[in-house]
Structure formats: C-alpha cells, structure tokens
Amino acid sequence: MLRQRIIASLSALAAAVALAVGLPAASSATEQSGPTAACSAPNWVAGQWYDVGAIVRYTNGGFYRAEHANPGYDPVISHWYWKPHTCDGGGTPSGFVVSEAQFNQMFPNRNPFYTYQGLTAALSAYPGFATTGSDVTKKQEAAAFLANANHETGGLVHIVEQNTANYPHYCDRNQPYGCPAGQAAYYGRGPIQLSWNFNYKAAGDALGLNLLGDPWLVQNNAAVAWKTALWYWNTQSGPGTMTPHNAMVNGRGFGETIRSINGSLECGGKNPAQVESRVNAYRNFTRILGVDPGGNLYC
The whole model's pTM is what? Predict the structure, then answer.
C-alpha cells in the first residue's frame, strides 16, 4: 500500500513538473497507442450528406465510417448508419488496392514530388474512391484515375502546366472573389492539372484549404496535389455527364472518364492520339493490378 502511494505521488509530481515547464504529461498506454491516433479524416458535420464509406472525425475525437448513406446523422446515436473506424499505421484507410511497388512500376520515371505516401495520405478526403463495388471495380477505378493522371502529367513528371503562355488566361474576373493571388496564378497544377480560379476556390472549399489565396500549395505539398485530383475525380463531371468516379463504379467504362476530364477537346474523334495515350496507360495499369480493363474504353 505504501509503495502504491509513493508511485502515485511520484506520478502526480512528474505531471506537475511537466506542466510547469510546458511539457506534455505522460499519457496512458491507450492514449499513446490507439489505432486511430494516425487517422486523418474531415470533421463530421450535422446535416451534410455522406456516402457509404465516408470516414469522419466526431466531436469526441473518435473516427466513424458510414455503413449506409445518410444526411449527416450523429455517429454516436445512429449506430445503423455509422460504425467506429480505425486506420492503418500510415494514417489512411487501410487496403488501398495499389501497392507502393505497383505504383513505382506504373511510374518508373516520376518526379520525386509525386510520392506514394502523398497519394495514400490524400485518400481519406474521398474514402469512396477505389473502395466501392467489387474488387475488380476497385482496381479498375484506381487504374483509371492513375492512367488519366499519367497522361495529364507526362508520367507524373510535370507538377505544373508547361505552356506558360496559358497562365494569364485562367483568371475569371466575373467571379465575385476575383483572383486574389494574381492574374496568372491559377495555371494547371497537380496530377489532373487543377486550373482556373473558380476551380481552386471550389476545391479549396471542399478540402478546407485556402487554395484561392494560395494556389502554390498544390505544387508544394504532395498530399494537397493528390487531394485536388481526387476532388475533381469524385465530384466534378467537367464536359461529361457524370463524375469519373461514378463512371467507373457504375460500369460506364474508362472512356467516360476521359469525357469528364477533357472530352470537349479529345472525344468524338477530335484528338484520337490523346485518347489512345490514356487508354494505353489504363490497359498497362490494369495489367499491373491483374484485372481486366472492361469495355467502353474509348469516348
């Protein structure tokens, strides 16, 4: 009993000293090593729509995954819609269908900026990506996304748009927020070459980042660059009729993703060489992942 009291007294003294000198007090074993400690997910928002697979951080610090789509029900109350979630040691939802070795095989000459760790760190922003549908569908979607990124960046070589003459054209002054970073600041950046001030504004709002004011963040932070590409892939239809994500998970085929990304300039026979470049990369990447590419490859 006396020994226990001494240990308790010493523990209290250590905590008091740590507080006095500005150091964090020692945490319990559970607090130090819980599997959710490395998770990265957006905060839950009441009333916001969540698709199946969405991962959120609740107000109590815990993480929850949507088992059923819902309009922002409370995770600690609506147990049918939400289940507690843990992450792997890398801080991203585990089980990404592309391994680091396969990623390196896909992009043998990539720019060191485009790291595999940057990609996996970005996955929590859109947890439905490459996790929806059958195992075949998941691999096909990952291959489709990376194939389009391959084409847009010359094999993950280019971080920014190479035609600098285009730079001043991406500022739409008719938008109420204008171009606070400058007339020529909103050129293409990242794996799917995010461009135009309104796209930087929309992507930044969705990701909780001030990309309108600091578009250079996309070319300086690998995770942010990948997140902007996933933002477009999962939420934008571009010149197409659906998002690339929906095209793949609903069986519309790789060709429909091309239409959603650059269809107005490439599809319908306008630029068959560009389409062929994307399709060839997709076929190669599905081969690396050991999955059939499916039909409807062209647009």
Answer: 0.70
